[in-house]
UniProtKB/TrEMBL annotation:
This is Uncharacterized protein. InterPro entries: Cpn60/GroEL (IPR001844), GroEL-like_apical_dom_sf (IPR027409). PANTHER family: 60 KDA HEAT SHOCK PROTEIN, MITOCHONDRIAL. Keywords: Chaperone. One of its GO terms (biological process) is protein refolding.
Amino acid sequence: MKLTRGYISPYFITDQKTQKCELENPFILIHDKKISDMNSLLKVLELSVTNKRPLLVVAEDVDSDALAMLILNKHRAGLKVCAIKAPGFGDNRRATLDDLTILTGGEVITEKRGIALNKVRPEMLDTAKKITVTIDDTIVLHGGGDKKFIEDRCVQLREATERSSATFDKEKAQERLSKLSGGVAVFKVCHSFLKTDGVAVYNSCKCWF
C-alpha cells in the first residue's frame, strides 16, 4: 500500500542523524477531521502511556494546542509520537482511510459513526509492527489487519476496476488495489502537566515550540 504523507513537524523525529521518526508496535489513531483541541487527544494519549505503546495520529490535520501537546509529550514525557496528514481529498481520502484501517486492523474514528475522540477504546485503534516516518514519506510495515478482510477488500477493488468504464475511477481503484495488495503504506508530503485517570499527560497550553 503506497500513499503520500510525512510528519507534520520535525519535532517528532526520533533519530536526528537519519531525520526519521521510528515507531515500533504503535497504536494508530485514524481520524477523518482536523484535530485542534488538545482535550480531544487526552484519551488516546492516556491509552498510549498506559499500554506503553508509541502513537501515530493520522488526521485531516493536527494543529494548534493539539499539535503542541503531542510535541510536548514527546520531549517532556518521552512518549514516541508522530502526526501526519491524511492523504487525498474528499471521497478519495475517505476511501483511502477505510483501506488503511483494513490493513492495520482498527477503524476510522469519526463522529458520523457515533465515535468521539474522547471515547476511543484500545480495540478501535489500528496497529502495525513498525512505522518509519520522514519529512517526505511514511512506511507502515506488517499492519495488524485480518488477512481475510484485506483479501475481501482486494477482491472488491479488483471487481470495481473491471466494472468501471470511467478512466479516472478505474485508475483510482487500481491504485488502491496496488497499495493494499502490497501490504506497505508509503505516505508522502512536501514540506503543564495533566493527570487523567491517574495517568500523567503533558498539557501544551502553556508550552509552545
